[in-house]
Amino acid sequence: MKFLSTRGKSQVENASEAIVKGLADDGGLFVPEKFPDLSKDLNKLVEMDYSQRASFVIGSFLSEYDAVALQKGCDNAYSKFEDGDPAPIVKVDDGFYIMELFHGPTIAFKDVALTLLPYLLRTGADFTGIKEEILILVATSGDTGKAALEGFKDQKGIKICVFYPSEGVSDMQKLQMCTQEGENVKVVAVKGNFDDCQTAVKKIFNSNEINQKLKEQNVILSSANSINFGRLVPQITYYFSAYCDLVNSNEIKVGDKVNFVVPTGNFGNILAGYYAKQMGLPVGTLVCASNDNNVLTEFFADGTYDANREFYKTTSPSMDILISSNLERLIFEISNRDATKTAKRMEDLKKTGKYDISKEELDKLSLEFYADYSDAEEGEETISEIFEEYGYVCDPHTAVAVNVFEKFRKFNKNNQQTVVLSTASPYKFPQSVLKAITGKTEKDAFKSADRLYNETAMPIPQQISSLKQKERRFSGEVEKDAVIDEIFSFIKK
Ligand SMILES: *Cc1c(COP(=O)(O)O)cnc(C)c1O
User: Fold this and answer.
1) 103, 407, 482, 485 - which has most CB atoms within 10 Å?
2) Is the CB of 140 under 6 A from ligand 1?
3) CA distance 406 to 201
4) 290 three-state secondary structure
5) In sequence order, what DSSP letters do the residues of 327-351 get, joined into one string?
6) Ligand 1: does its nearest atom lie under 6 Å from the Cβ of 396?
7) pLDDT tops 80 at residue 493
8) Ligand 1: distance of its center to the CA of 265 in Å?
9) Average pLDDT of the segment spanning 356-380
């Protein structure tokens, strides 16, 4: 299957190239030439386990990948999740389900894609004839870094170097990264905030001189960030899987529509739901939930995307984003795949921080999406309310989604079943969750986790409890100008 750029000036012949390149040469994002139609396959998918569903859904885009090897790749990736299921569904109330995407190696939903990406990338690189060693560079504000490290550790022919801002990741996130095991990994704290860190890494990607020097040492750069199609495609599976699980537990019949509520940052997760719908999954409304950084809520309300606003640091940091990169793919679709229009809008965004869509396009979006946000106070209240009412403990990102679900419920006149996506374990943010449930503050992350366990009896994941004993392999911090030296000293090893 061919992949086109959203900006129209570039295309590649297959998924392998799209995954290896990450970004199209014209700066656009790769989109499949067309969406495979799986509407006739739902009954078949219902009978399968998660890993089989994954290889079926993913394989429908990756025609050049060997089906048996892809199945093996999926089996291997998803065996790393509790009970081999990356997306179990919990029934909270009538018509209200939570899909828990946090039972993987790093207890955040990014594991679903990043456990499989190494296989997709390695196979894609072999297919396109790449002989060099691949160096993955990641700038992270928290969850992506750890999930990428865990996914790529000890993968042959691949090295990974993660940069995180010394100010701005949570205690647990920092500990998770600094204790990372594996021979091919490196973790560096960069003095400054996330923007400093990201800018330093982007400079390296964009420098011909550095790329040339790396090539002389038999190394090419690649990225694992959420605009890569290889990150997006594994996420489509769990929308199908949730639907099939609801059929299997007799909550719905094949053909019924289901809504999904998604706590959104870079728009990758919810876009995968939109793609599932294009592929024939009976999706009702896609609900886009934001925190105080509610640029998307306003976009869906009035058709203007305006990133010129105050940036808030919230208790749901993975959603603290003003430029949602994957939205470009949605804009491309609703303009009837008009690449010229999309390129112009992205140019406007770059120049002025802002762009508009037409009234007609906005009307189209309103038929498929509902968007709202939850402020800091509402998020905290939601954690305590849902615990009081249902005994369910959720993290601050999921709380944003649950709060927006409560707002959406009033509009859901046709009584469709709704699945809220839960994106992180509450134990990844124990201080915030403890405060929401007990009203008390505890600075220390491990003490907070213990107290949270005493309050809720929700088991502490081994990924958290084992952190205490783990050796800290990476310490210290560097200036942003020193990022490049760190990379060269790492690849020489
Ligand atoms: C990354 C992340 C999100 C946001 O997902 P997007 O695909 O960027 O919209 C939400 N919650 C958690 C916990 C995350 O790690």
Assistant:
1) 103
2) no
3) 40
4) strand
5) HHHHHHHHTTS-HHHHHHHHHHHHH
6) no
7) no
8) 5
9) 97
Question: Residue 360: is its pLDDT beyond 80?
Answer: yes
Ligand 1 neighbour 143 (Cβ under 6 A): yes
Question: What does the pLDDT average to over 51-66?
Answer: 97
Band of the pLDDT at 236, cuts 50, 70, 90?
Answer: very high
Helix, strand, or coil (residue 284) = strand
Bridge-based pairing state of the strands 258-263 and 417-422: parallel
Phi, psi of 226 (to 5 degrees): -75, 0
Q: Whose CA is nearest to atom 2 of ligand 1?
A: 318
Neighbours of 393 (CB within 10 A): 20
Beta bridge pairs of residue 189: 164, 477
β-pairing, 3-5 vs 96-100, is unpaired
265 within ligand 1 shell (Cβ under 6 A): yes
pLDDT above 80 (res 157) = yes
E strands, 114-266, are 133-139, 158-165, 185-190, 219-223, 258-263
pLDDT of 492 over the 90 cut: no
Query: By alpha-carbon position, which residue is closest to atom 8 of ligand 1?
Result: 266
Residue 110 annotated in active site = yes
Tokens of 273: 């739901």
Binned at pLDDT 50, 70 and 90, residue 336 comes out as very high
Atom index in ligand 1 nearest the CA of residue 235 equals 7
Q: Are 349 and 6 in contact (CB under 8 A)?
A: no
SS3 state at 121: helix
A 10 A CB-CB count for 54 gives: 29
379 residue type, one letter? G
Strand partners, 97: 91, 419
- Encode burial over 24-36: b for 16+ CB neighbours within 10 A, e otherwise: beebbbbbbeebb
Measuring CA to CA, which residue among 212, 204, 215, 225 is closest to residue 481? 204
Going from the Cα of 318 to the center of ligand 1, the distance in angstroms, rounded, reads 5
pLDDT tens figures, 79-113: 999 999 999 999 999 999 999 999 999 999 999 99
Give the pLDDT band of residue 226 (cuts 50, 70, 90). Answer: confident
Helix (H, G, I), strand (E, B) or coil at 6: coil
Spot the catalytic one: 110, 186, 277, 435: 110
Question: Measured on CA atoms in the order 272, 276, 278, 284, is the torsion positive or negative?
Answer: negative
Pairwise CA distance, residues 419 & 402, whole Å: 10
Longest dimension (CA), the chain: 62
Q: Is the CB of 423 under 6 A from ligand 1?
A: yes
